[in-house]
Design a protein that fits this description.
Order of helices and strands: HEHHEEEEEEHH
Number of helices: 5
Oligomer: single chain
Length: 107
């Protein structure tokens, strides 16, 4: 995870309970923490959200830093998102004006 990502974390924030899908392989890779971090909507699994962000996201204050507590075991959706990619920049654009999200991203 780059320093720019650590200063940003925007891709880990959402208001959708079905934001990050979790496949069976993802669930196995997450391991013991899956019971705490994953929830089901019907028969589909998703990362659990806590206070508007992924429950696996560690948020540290002063200066604000974000890191994934399961980075090496994160879901495939997270693995596919590359810093500075169209998807990354789309996340920045879509979420930059949300209250409480003072972005410092330089992707």
């Amino acid at each position: 995870m780059s320093d720019d990502c650590l200063a940003c974390g925007v891709c880990c924030f959402s208001t959708l309970e079905s934001y990050v899908p979790v496949s069976g392989d993802d669930y196995e890779r997450i391991g013991e923490e899956a019971a705490r971090l994953v929830h089901f909507v019907g028969n589909k699994a998703f990362m659990h959200l806590f206070e508007g962000h992924c429950a696996a996201l560690d948020v540290r204050a002063g200066p604000r830093r974000y890191s994934c507590s399961i980075y090496e075991r994160r879901p495939e959706t997270c693995r596919e998102l590359s810093q500075g990619s169209r998807a990354c920049l789309g996340e920045l654009e879509a979420k930059s004006l949300r209250p409480g999200r003072a972005l410092v991203c330089v992707a």
